[in-house]
Design a protein that fits this description.
The structure holds 2 protein chains of 2 kinds. By secondary structure, chain A is an alpha+beta fold. Helix content of chain A is 19%, strand content 48%. A 4-stranded mixed sheet of chain A has the order 3-2-1-4, covered by helices on one side. The longest helix of chain A is centred in the last third of the chain and has 12 residues. About 7% of the residues of chain B have low confidence. In chain B, a hairpin with a 5-residue loop joins strand 31 and strand 32. By secondary structure, chain B is mostly beta strands. Chains A and B meet through strand 2, strand 3 and helix 1 of A and strand 30 and strand 31 of B.
Chain lengths: 62, 514
């Protein structure tokens, strides 16, 4: 699984999801361990093969 | 009293003697009794005993094994007595015994008292000389409907309780159990014994009829939401994951020739893997499916069955393993002894049983993602020897159809599901091209969660899915995201790129695979 450009997206300051490009496709990954993409991202981050980008916060109330 | 048969009879002529109707058969040249005629006092009895039967009826037969002679109980008009039916000559010894012939046609030049067993009719005749003629006459004496005949009858009782005072050989149909019993006397007891004992095959047949027995989803390779040709690791046919490490392989959807009978029940599709092996201890090509929930088949014997063939006689290996999930403190995976299959070059059904260990005492992770995995190893470096029974490296073409994993020690027929059912099963794990859209109003650019649309997924997915949205058409919308995402629903909303009316039409892909 090739994962690039991953970062945490927050909404109103609360972690909402991980936005990542997975095998060339922009994806929205839920923050749940039952999701295989989330686990893979966490595994790669832990292994040092993936570095998370800066968190992006979206103000939904704007 | 001597009975007199007509001289020079014609075929079909009848004569009634002592209530018994004899009909002349010109082909056989013999008088034969008519089945079912007579009636009255019942059939003649045949007794085998060293002493004469008591209270005999005329015509009864008695075979005395001590002298090897047969007697008939005969009324000559003045007295009843047992008369030897095949008297030997007065001189004894070798002379004068009546002959017994077994043939399809009547013996030529018979003597009075000769016996002929007509093998074409299974009827015994005796050559009888009366006052004016000699002829073959059937020795069988019909009984009144056979009920009281020598052959007797067997009582059959239909009831929900066993008959009282049964006789040996009596039959009882138990209406509660829908089973047939026979009353059987052995050397030291008598008892009702089930006449038809259910065998293993029958029991498995019952299991086989159980819907949902096949825990492999899309075992018929009918659903291909991901595409139809794959070379990289990832999902291929729905639920089937290809892992290529080092070795390269291409897996494609294939369509059976219409009307083929090599694989039964007219399946539409199968999968073909073309493997180009690259030597390396960690290299492999393996097709696998994760069955949700490690409780599946735990502590049971299971049977794997599938149709397969290869471009040449080649081994593949199959293994299963139990994974207890992630997060928390899950137990380590349990690998089940692999087994090899020697594929031939023609479609063949392969079957093997595996024992799935109990999970008693194991601990699940907290992510609710435990599973039982089935793997078809086509090429495997030495790192995988323990999981492949040292399969080793090989290239080739491998084809699979009708994969089934079920409880029990024998394979039932492949469980066919409709395409609709299979697609629904697959959508628990992957949904492609879910159409979404919405419209609204924004007061500026960069506003999120606009043109919101609630969406309930067509099935409850295994977990909250990864979402990919592809916008088809839009007005002042730069992107669409899922909000309030769960395993069964979400709300899609757009990010505005300008003020004013905004709208979008898009399709979403949802991935909750294991």
């Amino acid at each position: 699984m090739n994962i690039t450009s991953a970062y945490i997206q927050q909404i109103d300051g609360v972690d909402h999801c991980i936005m990542a490009v997975i095998d060339g496709t922009q994806c929205q990954v839920p923050l749940t361990g039952g999701n295989r993409h989330y686990r893979e991202i966490m595994d790669q981050v832990e292994a040092g093969t993936l570095v998370m980008g800066d968190t992006v916060n979206i103000e939904e109330s704007n | 009293m001597a009975y007199n048969f007509p001289d020079s009879p014609s075929n079909g002529d009848t004569v009634t003697i002592n209530g018994i109707v004899y009909t002349y058969n010109s082909t056989k040249g013999a008088w034969k009794t008519t089945a079912g005629s007579g009636g009255g006092g019942g059939g003649a009895s045949v007794t085998v005993s060293e002493t004469a039967p008591t209270s005999p009826s005329e015509g009864d037969l008695w075979f005395d094994p001590s002298v090897l002679k047969t007697f008939v109980y005969y009324d000559d008009g003045t007295a009843n007595q047992w008369v030897q039916s095949n008297p030997t000559g007065s001189g004894g010894g070798a002379s004068g015994g009546a002959s017994v012939t077994v043939s399809e046609t009547a013996p030529t030049s018979p003597s009075a008292g000769d016996l002929w067993w007509s093998s074409s009719e299974a009827v015994m005749y005796i050559y009888y000389t009366d006052t004016d003629s000699s002829q073959w006459v059937s020795t069988s004496v019909p009984g009144a409907d056979g009920a009281d005949g020598a052959t007797g009858s067997v009582s059959v009782t239909t009831a929900d309780t066993a008959p009282s005072n049964p006789s040996d050989g009596e039959l009882w149909w138990n209406t509660d159990a829908n089973k047939l019993y026979i009353y059987y006397a052995d050397t030291d007891s008598s008892q009702w014994v089930q006449a038809t004992t259910p065998g293993a095959a029958g029991a498995n047949g019952t299991d086989g009829a159980t819907p949902g027995r096949n825990k492999i989803i899309n075992g018929n390779f009918d659903v291909w939401q991901y595409g139809t040709s794959f070379t990289a690791s990832g999902f291929t046919a729905d639920r089937w994951h290809l892992t290529n490490i080092g070795t390269s392989s291409t897996f494609t959807q294939q369509v059976f020739t219409l009307g083929q009978t090599d694989v039964p029940d007219n399946p539409a599709n199968y999968v073909r893997g073309v493997v180009s092996s690259v030597t390396g201890a960690g290299n492999t090509s393996v097709l696998k499916q994760k069955i949700e929930n490690v409780r599946t088949f735990q502590g049971q014997t299971v049977t794997l069955s599938f149709y397969a063939k290869a471009d040449a006689v080649k081994n593949i290996a199959v293994d299963l393993y139990q994974n207890f999930g992630t997060s928390g403190s899950p137990s380590t995976s349990v690998y089940i002894t692999p087994q090899k299959f020697a594929l031939s070059t023609t479609w063949t059904k392969y079957t093997k049983t595996f024992t799935i260990p109990s999970i008693t005492g194991k601990t699940l992770g907290t992510d609710n993602n435990d599973f039982l995995q089935l793997s078809f190893w086509l090429d495997a470096g030495s790192d995988f020897n323990s999981r492949t029974d040292t399969l080793g490296h090989q290239s080739g073409t491998f084809e699979f159809a009708q994969v089934q994993l079920e409880s029990g020690s024998s394979a039932t027929d492949f469980e066919h599901k409709s395409i609709g059912e299979t697609i629904q099963d697959c959508k628990r794990y992957y949904i492609k091209d879910l159409k979404i859209g919405g419209g609204g109003y924004a007061t500026g650019s960069g506003q999120t969660a606009r043109a919101m649309t609630s969406c309930t997924f067509p099935v409850e997915m295994r977990a909250s899915p990864t979402v990919n949205v592809t916008i088809g058409q839009s007005g002042s919308i730069s992107s669409v995201q899922a909000n309030s995402l769960t395993s069964h629903s979400c709300q899609f909303g757009g990010t505005s790129s300008a003020s004013g009316s905004i709208w979008y039409k898009a399709s979403a892909t949802l991935d909750a695979e294991l």
